[in-house]
C-alpha cells in the first residue's frame, strides 16, 4: 500500500503538468489550425465576418509562437498543493531535464521526506521508493505514463509539457474568436478536447485555458489560470498556475515555481541502483 500512496505524488505532478501544458501549447495549435485548407479558412472568415481577420490572427499568433522555448538543460523547484473530495496535500517537486535524453523528478512530502523518485528516458521509466522496504525500485516501459495518465504520452510529450511547449498537433480547427481591449479569446476543437484560450491584451501570454472533452461520455473539464509571468528570453513563463479538474470527482491544484534555471548544470539528478545509469551532477 505504501508504494501506491507514493505513486500518487508522481501521478499528481504528472497530472498537473499534463493539465498545465503552459503558454505555447494551445497557441501553436491555433497557429497550425489557421494554416489549414482553404475550406477551413472560408469557414473561419465566414464566422468572424471580416475579410482581413485571418491575416490579423496569423500575425498575432506568429509573434507568440516564435517564443517556443529551446534549451539544453533545465532545473526547477515546484511547490504543489492539491485538494480533492477525499483529501488534501502539498509537496515539493524537484525536476532536472537534459534535452531529448533524461528527466529526473524527486517528490518531497512533509518535513522534506522523499516519497518517490522518477528517472525517465525515451524508452523507459525507473521509479524509486526510498520509504518502501519491500519494493524500493520499479522499472517500466515509457508506455507506463500512458497507463498512468490515460493520455498518449511519449518522452518528447512530457518534455514539452514541462517546458510549456506545444504538444498534440493533431487536426485542430478554429471555431471562433473574439477580441476586445483587454483580452483575445479563441475557441478550437481537436481530436481529444474542445479548447477555449484567453490571451492578454497584447497577445503575448495565455491568461486562461479551458479544456472540455470531445467525448461527452467522459464528462471531463479542466480550467487553468496562469499568473505571475516572468520573461525568460522571448518566453513568458508563468510562475503560478491554478488548475481545477472536474471528472468523476473535482480536483483543485495550486502550482508555484519557486526557482528555475535553464542551460546550467543539472542539479536534481540521482543514482539508479544496479543496472541503472551512473549518477550525474549533485545528489538530491
Can you walk me through this structure?
The structure is a single chain. The chain has one domain (2-262): Lipoprotein localisation LolA/LolB/LppX (outer membrane lipoprotein receptor (LolB), chain A). It is α+β, with helices and mostly antiparallel strands. It has helices at residues 2-20, 22-34, 38-48, 53-65, 143-149, 155-163; strands at 73-84, 88-98, 102-108, 114-120, 124-128, 137-141, 173-179, 184-189, 193-199, 206-213, 221-232, 235-246, 250-262. 25% of the residues lie in helices and 39% in strands.
Question: How would you describe the oligomerization state of the chains in this entry?
Answer: single chain
CATH class: Mainly Beta
As residue ranges, the low-confidence spans are 19-38, 276-281
N- to C-terminal separation?
Answer: 25 Å
Mean pLDDT: 74
Amount of helix:
25-40%
Radius of gyration: 20 Å
- Characterize the overall form: globular
Number of strands: 13
Structural class call reads alpha+beta
Q: Report the sheet-strand fraction.
A: 35-45%
